[in-house]
Amino acid sequence: MYETIAYDVTDGVATITLNRPDKLNAITLQLNSELRKAVKQASSDHEVRAVVLTGAGRAFCSGQDLGDVEEGTDYGEVLRTSYAPVVKEIDACEKPIIAAVNGVAAGAGFSLALACDFRLVSDKATFVEAFVHIGLIPDAANLYYLPKLIGQAKALELALLGEKISAEEAKELNLVTRLFAADDFEEEVRAFALHVAQMPTKAIGLIKRYMKEGWNTSLPAYLEKEAYGQRIAGLSEDHQEGVYAFMEKRKPVFQGK
Ligand code: T3D
């Protein structure tokens, strides 16, 4: 079904693997379209309770495939029709989305990692705001997410200078949820993904939504939205299970309902 990505669901975890390793998983129109479809597929599959986005081979993603770029292309249109839909699909996903950054994340590859909820990073990974080196601005919501995650001054430095940063430096900047040794990376990602897949999925979706609501909402309006969200969470089976498990002094078994 997919040609430029691989898609697998095991134990409630959907793994989307960008699969053009000879080009360091550079993004073509087809890859962008398949990635959007795969995220949508994972979002709407009730069996899926966590999503992992990773890269095949030694890279996470090297950004736009520069061999695919035609002179005179209207990049604004490419962003509107190809990149923005992917970012919106990731943003709309109510399941936890984990970027498993196995190697270099450059350009729009960096942006994809930023759009995810968690960044699990191999100690062999690097991050580079490659855009400025080819006279472009960081896109695919890169400048939207980066300052929120690491602060404006550092985000500006990375975007303007385009210097490659190591996994360790990314960790110091707060870009990294967990840093793992490359040898243990797949195993650690699997364990982390399984862990979040067993959490109360509805509450996770609501936490994601309301965290973002707070960015552009006045406090009174936010408090009203929060009440609505907590009403939904409070009616979930997982909430009941959480309370029963606490009272019965046992580990909760959440079903994502
Ligand atoms: O189109 C629009 O709408 C605009 C949107 C733009 C969004 C963007 O993402 S702009 C930024 C695009 N990306 C880049 O500029 C990054 C280019 N790549 C690099 O700077 C480096 O390759 C890396 C830092 C990512 C990795 O360096 P290194 O030394 O580990 O690997 P390498 O030797 O440079 O690359 C290995 C191969 O992958 C090589 O091919 P070859 O020589 O073995 O046949 C290289 O050409 C290919 N490759 C790497 N990145 C890309 C790529 N091929 C096409 N597009 C790439 N982005």
Brief characterization of the structure:
The protein is an alpha/beta fold and 257 residues long. It has helices spanning 29-44, 75-92, 108-115, 142-150, 152-161, 167-172, 185-197, 201-213, 219-234, 237-247, and strands at 5-10, 13-18, 50-55, 59-61, 97-101, 104-106, 118-122, 126-128, 165-166, 178-180. The chain has a 6-stranded mixed beta sheet, with helices on both faces.
Would you mind describing this structure in some detail?
- 47% of the residues lie in helices and 16% in strands.
- The chain has 257 residues and is of the alpha/beta class.
- It folds into two domains: 5-197, 2-enoyl-CoA Hydratase, Chain A, domain 1 (Alpha-Beta Complex); 201-247, Orthogonal Bundle (Lyase 2-enoyl-coa Hydratase, Chain  A, domain 2).
- Strands 1-2-3-5-7-10 form a six-stranded mixed beta sheet, sandwiched between helices. Strands 4-6-8-9 form a four-stranded mixed beta sheet.
- The mean pLDDT is 97.
- The chain binds ligand T3D.
- Ligand T3D is lined by residues 23-24, 26, 62-67, 69, 75, 78-79, 104, 106-108, 128, 130-131, 134, 136, 139.
Task: Pick out its properties.
single chain; four-stranded mixed beta sheet; 2 domains; 2-enoyl-CoA Hydratase, Chain A, domain 1; Lyase 2-enoyl-coa Hydratase, Chain  A, domain 2; globular; six-stranded mixed beta sheet; binds ligand T3D; 10 helices; 10 strands
Topology:
Layout: E1 5-10, E2 13-18, H1 29-44, E3 50-55, E4 59-61, H2 75-92, E5 97-101, E6 104-106, H3 108-115, E7 118-122, E8 126-128, H4 142-150, H5 152-161, E9 165-166, H6 167-172, E10 178-180, H7 185-197, H8 201-213, H9 219-234, H10 237-247
Parallel strand pairs: 2-3, 3-5, 4-6, 5-7, 6-8, 7-10
Antiparallel strand pairs: 1-2, 8-9
This protein binds ligand T3D.
Ligand T3D binds at residues 23-24, 26, 62-67, 69, 75, 78-79, 104, 106-108, 128, 130-131, 134, 136, 139.
